[in-house]
Amino acid sequence: MNTFPRFLHIETLSKISNPYRNYAYFLFSNHKRRYTAVSLSLSTKSAEETLVVVGAGAAGVYGAIRAKTIAPDLNVVVIEKGKPLSKVKISGGGRCNVTNGHCVDNVILAGNYPRGNKELRGSFFNMHGPTDTMSWFSDHGVELKTEIDGRVFPISDNSSTIIDCLISEAKKRGVVLQTGKVVTSVSTSPGGKFSIKIEKCTIDYVEYVEADYLMIASGSSEQGHKLATQLGHSIVKPVPSLFTFKIADFQLVELSGVTFPKVRAKLKLETVQKSIPEHTQVGPMLVTHWGFSGPVILRLSAWGARDLSDSVYKGSLLVDFVPDIHIEDVKSYLIQHKNKFAKQRVISSFPSELGLVKRFWRYILEHEDLVGDLLWASISNNLLISIASRLKNCSFRVKGKGQFKDEFVTAGGVPLSEISLNTMQSQIQSRLFFAGEVLNIDGITGGFNFQVMYHIILNAWSGGYIAGTSIGNMAIAANLKEAAV
């Protein structure tokens, strides 16, 4: 049994007073923290059922609102360590790419998910897809616009518009949002309820909460994975996804900032344990001072996330800089240019049909040791064939990965085989739900200006809505059953 301390920090205790129930409190002795935790109810409506949502991201808040909309008497509490909807705030460069207004085909939508592409081809997006998301925000006062490439933004071009809408609706519905707190453990009672341990981030404080429903929507953080395992779930080991490539080629620095509207990039990796399939993507690419970025690289990193991790982020990248032109046509353009501009310097002119920029042409010539004032008339046909081959199949050595801005994504989490996508409910633990990045599901970038959060948020809207609907319906059914007794 603990002995009482010689002194008590009254100031600490005063900071954790609770207007509802008994708060947990801490006693200090010889600089060693001791505490006694007393069960706490997060709502005065103790007779009603309670839903606790772990995580105030897009999935958590959207799901909480939906559950409370269907079951108004359900106590809904969202617990968040940091700022609510922080990833929504940075998505789309701060504009918030809400969804895609052109893509309504489930198979095409699912094809944007390296993890989840097979499972999401079913009824997932039918239950709440892009059109439904747009309607929801429009019905709640957010004016949207669809840009030429299909991306949907608020007319304000400010993610705060989306955040304000969600927070306002949550408050209107009576959702309780508590920030600066972390759910550190969870277990189940013989009666089927969840016993949830919550700690505050800034002061010494613990509370225990009982909940009838639990939704884990904590993103790709270790917190959500830990809670899932405590409730019997397995976890697919998280590895980085959506990142840039570091390239071992010091001459690329001279090309920093050059963009290629369309390249075909093939990733070849090797490990001593197994053979790894090649990954190929087509799209825009950007040269940086450390290597390559842009949608084609981010997509390669996403689809090859696990293979890249296994190969310690080392391998070969083969790039076709003129993917729409056959190699024989490339040779033909070069020969024609030689014949037409024989007296011009090679470094000063090149076939316009190739669509190259001058800096990149110089880079290609330097790799062929063609420098100085060499004239086109002096170039042999064999050299022209070599240039054509390099344009169609230029090899680079990948020496590592770079993190993509602040919008870091991981592949891994709770396996989709352990939940029902029709309800988002666990198949292991009743009344336990998952939504968002805590699942082994991740999306690829949605546009050239690197809308990396696009498919993540799209999944969050759908998953959160389905989970909230399921919980709300279960709560209504439980109330009807109780009333009938």
TrEMBL record:
Annotated Gene3D superfamilies: FAD/NAD(P)-binding domain, HI0933 insert domain-like, Translation factors
Domain RsdA/BaiN/AoA(So)-like Rossmann fold-like as annotated: residue spans: 50-469
InterPro entries xrefs: BaiN-like (IPR004792), BaiN-like_dom_sf (IPR023166), FAD/NAD-bd_sf (IPR036188), RsdA/BaiN/AoA(So)-like_dom (IPR055178), RsdA/BaiN/AoA(So)_Rossmann (IPR057661)
Cofactor needs: FAD
Keywords: FAD, Flavoprotein
Pfam families, per the entry: HI0933_like (PF03486), HI0933_like_1st (PF22780)
Source superkingdom: Eukaryota
Start and end residues of each RsdA/BaiN/AoA(So)-like insert domain: 239-409
Protein name: Uncharacterized protein
Species this protein is from: Rehmannia glutinosa (Chinese foxglove)
